[in-house]
Amino acid sequence: MNKPRYARVPVGPFGLLRAIVRMLGLVLVTLFYVLGWGLVALWPWDRAGRARLRRGVSRRWAGSMCRVLGGRVDLQGELPAGPGFLITNHTGYLDIPVLMSLTGCRFVSKSEIAHWPVIGFLARKGGTLFVNRGNKGRDANVTLDGMARALEDGDLVVFFPEGTTGTGERILPFRSGLLSLPARDGHPVWPAALVYETDVPDVDTGLALAWSGGQSLLPHVWRLVCLPGFSVRVASGHAVEATHRKTLARALEYRVTLMHAGLARLEAAPEPAPETAS
Q1: Per-residue pLDDT averaged across 31-52, rounded?
Q2: What is the β-pairing status of strands 189-198 and 230-236?
Q3: Residues 135-173: tens digit of each pLDDT
Q4: For residue 5, how many other CB atoms are within 10 A of its CB?
Q5: What is the C-alpha separation between 123 and 105, in angstroms, rounded?
Q6: pLDDT at 248 over 50
Q7: Is the pLDDT of residue 255 over 80?
Q8: Whole-angstrom Cα distance, residue 158 to residue 88?
Q9: pTM for this one?
Q10: What DSSP assignment string belongs to the chain?
Q11: Whole-number Cα distances in Å, 272 to 26, 123, 216, 265
Q12: What is the pLDDT of residue 273?
């Protein structure tokens, strides 16, 4: 097996200082929102009030994280507010704050993340629903029940049917397991697509921003904060409905593939030449 290649981000003295400030900023912003959420949550909110509070705090935290990282988010179309389901392609952990900053959504994630230091704690506080991948029966029912309760709370539930992260160059085949609930109960599912680009022409976007191929987390985060910034285009499509999960998965994969290809063409298009006076 070939070892994954890593992006090399050129960093000068100013870039190094900016990276250190950003790392501190990520920590301080997270501490501020975690402590704030902990204090506000002491109030005896009802279920609906607590859900609205969590969505508001999550959205503001995610937006702050994107700004600290120098991220610019360009939304094309409208994302649903919830309750409902949203699916998209998956390039890595950056997808979480990008989508959360737009919607205050909840995510479905693999159960291993619940036990990761710091990240697992933040995921639980953000209302993440954890699934034991590959397990059927009771574990699957527990996940579907959690998704149903999230809809009752008015949440937008986001998951990544590719089941893994990719470099962002193409859409991987969609898995249909988590689409059982919307197919069974007739819930619409909104498709979306994300395409990233860096501000450094010589840096491969798929290596610098996508977290895939067995890369270690901390070195990848360090390369990310060393970048001058990044931008992400998010395209949203019309809701899709189907009565069978596999039919729904195929329809959504087709929609996401088309939107992703359109965003990729926009990224590759050259900037228009400035007009000159004749």
Answers
A1: 86
A2: antiparallel
A3: 554 545 667 788 888 998 999 999 999 988 888 888 999
A4: 11
A5: 12
A6: yes
A7: yes
A8: 8
A9: 0.86
A10: -PPPP-------HHHHHHHHHHHHHHHHHHHHHHHHHHHHTTS---HHHHHHHHHHHHHHHHHHHHHHTTEEEEEES----SSEEEEE---STTHHHHHHHHH--EEEEEGGGGGSTTHHHHHHHTTPEEE-TT--THHHHHHHHHHHHHHHTTPEEEE-TT-S---SSSPPPPP-GGGHHHHHHT--EEEEEEEEEES-TTS-HHHHT---TT--HHHHHHHHHHSS-EEEEEEE---B--SSHHHHHHHHHHHHHHHHHHHHHHHHSPPPPPP---
A11: 36, 42, 38, 14
A12: 43
Cβ atoms of 210 and 196 within 8 Å: the answer is yes
**pLDDT tops 70 at residue 132:** yes
